[in-house]
Amino acid sequence: MQSHQRFGPHLRLIGMAVLWGASWPAGRIIAQSMPPLAGACLRFVLAAMVLIPWMYWAGGFSQLKSWSAQRWLGMAAAGATGVFGYAAFFLSGLQHLPAGKAALVITLNPVMTLLMAVWLFKERLNTIIAAGMLLAVVGAVVVLSHGKPLEILQGAMGIGELLILGCVVCWVLYTLIGRWMLTGVDALSTTAVTSTIGALFLLVGSLIVEGPSGLASAVHSGTTAWVALLFLAFGATALAYAWYFDGVKALGAGAASGYITLVPLFGVVISAFLLGERVDTSMLLGGAMAIAGTAVMSWGRSRA
Fold it and tell me: Which one of 25, 86, 220, 232 is most buried, by most CB atoms within 10 A?
């Protein structure tokens, strides 16, 4: 029992990393077949169909009546950033960028999360953590710039890279909002409520931007796209989000976000295997630097 309590959150976060790593090639398949907002809307509608009954049977509905207006506002903010914003940038970016490369950009997540946690929650920062952050940022820049980092200063990044950076911003906000609002709220309820709110935002956004034809086009996409969508909804959303929030609650925002280091590794490997994507030198070098940097950050945090 003690072993399960000690390693349970870590094992669930590793499982989360595998599912989120596989979400990149799945997202690439969907992005090539569906309008991005409509596809993202269907993803979270399907996820909510699992999460809401799960929350009900777990007894989570009883606490909703006691939530304050501030708690509901926090849930709405999390749904707007981590579901609506992230999902919209995610599928829009994958229309323009290979899945493996996009996954490597997410190595910036723990860096930005920790910087904000240091500022907002007074988390400690030492020399080792700072060195890891610098290494991770340089690695991500190498990936983003195709091995020519100086060109970023000249605005050489494409639309795909910029959209995936939007994912980073949204996820950092989502994690920090989650840390603030998790007090007294279980991970399942948080995931169910924010996913449902985010699905509503995505539905409205899709109808405004893509029109009713966007949803119709997504519904009538091929079998392969729907298999990828079902995986995103039930594996990479319903299950992985719950595991992630459980890790945030058990270990803290900074420690849990450190496991996102594994996401790009799984993303590159699974994308190469499923989609046959080529891994070039800049991805290998920059990816290795970014992953090593986030590992150094985690080591520095353990020493702190």
Answer: 232
Cβ contact 258:95 at 8 Å: no
Measured distance CA(180)–CA(175) in Å, rounded: 9
> What is the distance of C-alpha 124 from the center of its chain?
24
Length of the chain as a residue count: 304
Q: How far is 66 from 287, CA to CA, in rounded Å?
A: 45
pLDDT at 152: 59
Asked if residue 102 lies in contact with residue 158, where contact means CB atoms within 8 angstroms, the answer is no
- Neighbour count for residue 147 (Cβ, 10 Å): 16
Given this model, what pLDDT does residue 298 score?
A: 73
Q: Residue 21: what residue type? A: G
Three-state secondary-structure class, residue 87: helix
For residue 294, how far is the Cα from the chain centroid?
16
Count of helices and strands (H, E) across the chain? 15, 0
Can you tell me the distance from the alpha carbon of 214 to that of 78, in angstroms, rounded to the nearest whole number? 25
Q: Which regions in the chain score pLDDT beneath 50?
A: 1-4
pLDDT at 1: 46
Q: How far apart are CA 23 and CA 73, in angstroms?
A: 28
d(CA 233, CA 199): 11
**pTM for this structure?**
0.82
